[in-house]
Write the structure tokens for this entry.
Amino acid sequence: MSTDTVVVTGAGSGIGRATCLALASRGARVAVVDIDGAAARTVAEESLRTGAAAAIPVECDVSSEMAVQAAFEQVGVELGAPSGTFANAGIEANAPLHQLSSATWQQMIDVNLTGLFLTCREAVRLHVAAGRGGSIVCTSSPAAFIGHSGGGNSAYAASKGGISAFVRSTAIDYASHGIRVNAVVPGATDTALLLAGVDDDERDVAAERIRAAAREQVPLGRLARPEEIAAAVVWLLSDDSSYVTGTHLVCDGGLMAKSANDF
Ligand SMILES: NC(=O)c1ccc[n+]([C@@H]2O[C@H](COP(=O)([O-])OP(=O)(O)OC[C@H]3O[C@@H](n4cnc5c(N)ncnc54)[C@H](O)[C@@H]3O)[C@@H](O)[C@H]2O)c1
């Protein structure tokens, strides 16, 4: 089972946390990787209570090459070679292009795209060395495929488009090693990321506006729960998806299937 020992990045919150708990409920061994060490510790404890055979918190900024290498070394020592990796850590900041600072652009690329590259590279190195294949799941976004009508999404969309291209290429490169590489594409999901950049005193109003938009625009009429995305990730990590590689599993409530031509 590729869910035996799994590294999850961005595991301290939202989709990553839900995936840790879903893996834990199946008795997996989980490395809970997050830049927020306290959140990683909390989710590791929750994972143990949920049934994980083992769970370790790993504080790591995925945009740091040294930190990612050290994280996978720690996982190797404490849990053994991973059978699967969920490269999920991500951030979002929106601004129209003419107001987008190079610092914001760079940070988005560093965390979302370079962080995913560094994570997957370490995972692939361990899988190749162990000679047992494995499964890697990357978190993309509808932004990789369609424009965001809210606007100001160019840096985030570019980082996620890069991830989707990376997944297809890497899947082909490592198929002969039995290493599968796929992407999950969450639609609007009820996590902290949805309110990134919103001031504290505007959060309730912003949350209700987002829920109303989901009711109106998403065919299934609501936001996703993180657990619904986690279920898809666990399937991609597991041997149940043994003939699936280089592809995208879209979990967006029908958003991308819907045409904008509703005149
Ligand atoms: N929530 C959505 O609607 C949505 C939709 C599509 C894609 N996504 C993607 O899903 C992934 C998870 O997001 P989420 O919605 O669960 O958000 P979240 O904010 O709840 O969780 C993200 C986690 O990543 C961690 N993180 C941030 N920067 C990091 C870094 N440099 N190194 C390590 N960890 C870091 C955060 O501390 C946090 O725990 C992201 O890649 C995001 O782009 C989310």
Notes: Helices lie at 14-25, 37-50, 65-79, 102-130, 154-174, 203-217, 226-237. Residues 193-223 form one domain. The pocket of nicotinamide-adenine-dinucleotide is lined by residues 9-10, 12-16, 34-36, 39, 60-63, 88-92, 111, 115, 139, 141, 186, 188-189, 191-194 (CB under 6 Å).
